[in-house]
Amino acid sequence: MVDKIIVDHLSLQYADGTESLRDITLNIPANAVTVLFGPAGGGKSSLLRCLNRLNDLTELRTVSGKILLDGENILDPKTDVIALRRRVGMVFARPVVLPLTIRGNLTYGLELAGEKRKSRLEDAVERSLRLAALWDEVRTRLDDPAIALSGGQQQRLCLARVLANQPQVILLDEPTSGLDPISTGKVEAALQELKKEYTILLVPHSVQQAARTADFAAFFLQGELVEWANGKDLFTHPKIKRTEDYIEGRFG
Q: Is the dihedral of CA 229, 53, 117, 122 positive or negative?
């Protein structure tokens, strides 16, 4: 299996002295769902934010190590961060739709990047909505305000908005934490289809979701990567007791 991302001895400390990541080395395979799980404060979201340089927007004391995306160190100061964020899209826990129509939410980023051809924009709208398992629900409502959608539909619209920019990597930080079980199931099913074309990193909202969705899984605890393995193996036969204790609900 080809590694899409290689995290090489990554450490991160915030300006207030909080150490969020401690010497993390992790290979993330292409065309798979890699789950980062563990208790709050373990460094999972910090790692996600490093992968598209969102941590640039926070006050950091130190960052060391490398993150290689297709062999290119994205932490290099010369990296084009805007271009990187098109390659590495992110979906957050709470859906934040733009104050535009459903269609406008999907074409906004493309138009900002200079795309003016209506046929290309329309193709992107349909393709991204189909990939996010939302097309059948909104195909006749594309000119309605996005805010009129349900919470689950808004979250899938946020996923479609990322997909419209044709990224290579999709980051999802607890994307179903506020959704009902039916909407959660639709998002999880969409991820299983999307991994055929994309590399996906997911911070799940529960251990159960981690076990359901993971092709590969990494357990984080207090800034340390404790264990990484094939998802099925890690959730059924963890090798490290701290991992087993967390999965079994003994802490966290």
A: positive
Domain ranges of the chain: 3-96+167-247
Could you count the other beta carbons within 10 Å of the beta carbon of residue 241?
10
How far is it, in rounded angstroms, from Cα 232 to Cα 140? 40
DSSP 95-153: ----SSBHHHHHHHHHHHTT---HHHHHHHHHHHHHHTT-HHHHTT-TTSBGGGS-HHH
3-96+167-247 adopts what CATH topology?
Answer: Rossmann fold (3.40.50)
The separation between CA 62 and the C-alpha centre of its own chain, rounded to angstroms, equals 24
Each residue's pLDDT tens digit, 143-157: 999 999 999 999 999
Side-chain half-sphere of 77: how many Cα atoms within 13 Å? Answer: 2
Q: Across the chain, how many H-helices and E-strands are there?
A: 10, 10
CB atoms closer than 10 angstroms to residue 228: 19
- CA 215 – CA 234 distance, rounded (Å): 10
Distance CA 113, CA 251 (A): 46
Cα distance between the two ends of the chain: 32
What is the distance of C-alpha 156 from the center of its chain? 13
For residue 174, give the DSSP letter.
Answer: S
pTM higher than 0.85 for the full model?
Answer: yes
Q: How many CB atoms lie within 10 A of CB 154?
A: 23
Under the banding of pLDDT at 50, 70 and 90, the label for residue 73 is: very high
